[in-house]
Amino acid sequence: MLWVALELPALPLQIVEQGGACGVPLVVSEGPAQRPTVACLNVVAKAAGIREGQAVAAAKALAGEMRVVARDPTVEREAVERLAAWAAQFTPVSCIDGPGIALEVSSTLRLFEGHARLCAAVRKGVRELGFQGSLGVAPTALAARTFARAAARGLPARSCLVPGELPERLSDLPLFLFDWPGKTLARLADLGILRIRDVLALPQEGLARRFGPEIAAFLDRLLGRLPDPRAPYVPPPRFRSRLELPAEAEGVEALLFPLRRMLAGFEGTMRGRGAGVQHLVLSLEHGRRARTRVPLEFSSTEREAEFILAIVREKLGRLTLRAPTIALELRAGALLSYVPRESTWLPGAREQALDRGRLIERLAARLGSNGVFGIAIAEDHRPEKHWGSDPFSREAEQTGKRIRPCSSPREKGSDPRPAWLLCRPQKLVTQEGIPTLQGELEMLAGPERIEAGWWDGEEVSRDYYVAANPRGETFWIFREHRGAQAWYLHGVFA
Amino acid sequence: MRATVAELAKLPGVWRGGELEHASQPPVPTGHAALDRELPGGGWPSGTLTEVLHDGAGIGEVSFLAGALARASEGGRLIAWVNAPHLPYAPALGQSGLPLECCLVIRPPSRDDALWAAEQVLRSGACGAALLWLAHDDYACLRRLQMAAQAGRTLAVLYRTSPALRLSTPAHLRVLLEREEGWLKVSIPKRRGPPLEEPITLKVGRRSIRKKTKALDLAPRLRVVA
Fold this sequence. Notes:
heterodimer; A: alpha+beta; Alpha-Beta Plaits; Dna Ligase, domain 1; 5-stranded antiparallel β-sheet; 15 helices; B: alpha/beta; 26% helix
């Protein structure tokens, strides 16, 4: 067994500042509403002379303008749960352990090439999420927690890999690192027992009799003499993450930084579950229940934060927000199994199809799905209906709105067709009955009569010609067979 | 450190002024043997920007690329049409042998979106060829596109009008198209090699249309200027 414990000092403050550091003095309060006290505070507040445990009223007198946030145990619990879900990417045994998390990593050490690299990866990941934490490594969960706490307080603590070395490595650390009742700690201090070394030297039986059996059992679990099973955290079947911004954010650029942190958490959670999503909803909350929904659709299962951020950036760039944003929320639809992309030197057809899908998604995110389409031949003789746009978007594929490509393009080598088709035929000026377009048009081929569509009310009855002007530009023009017999330009032989 | 001239010439990006450059990436054959002979590497270069200059629409500026586009789409790569002046007409593209499922038409709402889309298309590597019509004329934008084309190994063709001939360009190859007596005249104002003295004449467009249609059965009221 090898445990890695993550300790998050001043977690309530870290949660408030996750969306970005706060520039004004910030204090998290706890205790009764009549007389709240300072639980933790940011650097600016510390510089103003505020200390932990002070009354909030006294702190206000020191700092003047100050932001006070009440401590919320539910939010803290949710944050730790999200961290545990995120950390499941490192090991299947990711447990919530009091105010932090504990990971049993002996089964994944080889995958991450040793505990040093694994810890480095965890540290880097925690930083990307916007948290500051310290790690402890030990063969038992309690010892790992003790080391992590010591590191958080700046005490010298070395990681320990062998159970035999545990008593020696722990010996110099103070007793208050343990989650023991204050009364017990005070009585031990009265006896002159301040360090772990001292308490380990006491006779076991006497300790159990004087301070209760749970203290003796704690020491046994600490040193690995008693088993200490932990239940891994089981995340809920859906992903949801909410982040409050430290200040109202005007515009879109300011949202990208907190969004990157949210997506990093999302990616880690998905990694831990071997999953990805095709459907994500980002909500921007503006206060007073107003919110902007930004739905994200992917054609393949995705979870990479960088890719999703690129798509979101394009989507947000097209939005104009009515009000400043105060919070972000990310919700994932059904979690689907994810096949990681292999990095190969010689990309095969699968990688290429993925590149292709991603390019089209990125383009459609900014240009809208009308701005990006494929083309296909449709079964109709009318030139404007003889082609169809072929939307690449997922909805089109699902609803079966895609054009069925014509099995055999009928005019292989028959009547000429222009490379450009005008969206709407353009009326030509005639001189003595001859159509002109920057000069008199000379007929090169035709007429080709196209008469169709009487059955659906959009009847066409036209004689098509290929015509060129004196500059050598070649066009596809037609004359209406009925009515005014006017000439129109319909295509360009580009 | 004695490098002979012959060794120097083997370095990528180094060539003698009198010879055509050896392409670092496999070029795309144009489908016209006469043109292939005059292009460095023997075809349209991929992974770099190519400028096609022409005035007026309808002189065969797209159809003379048909062979190259069909070749570039091999292996399921996309052919992107970025901000084309009109709609690429599916039946015509089908006639010229282009697989339609490879065509990606991009119609950006603004000129900046067009530039962005062009860069995305070139950089992604998913496109075998990209045909670009952009309103941007300044060197910095084109240089950006040139860098994107290098990253994505794409045959990038930028259409411009002939006044651009006076402006300098980061593109490695510049081709000028003119229509002359029913033929397409191709001159190469810029290439990595000696200047081309005689323009090349290609049989695309009008003459081939005339060949295909046998009888000119015009309406009696029409005066035919043949």
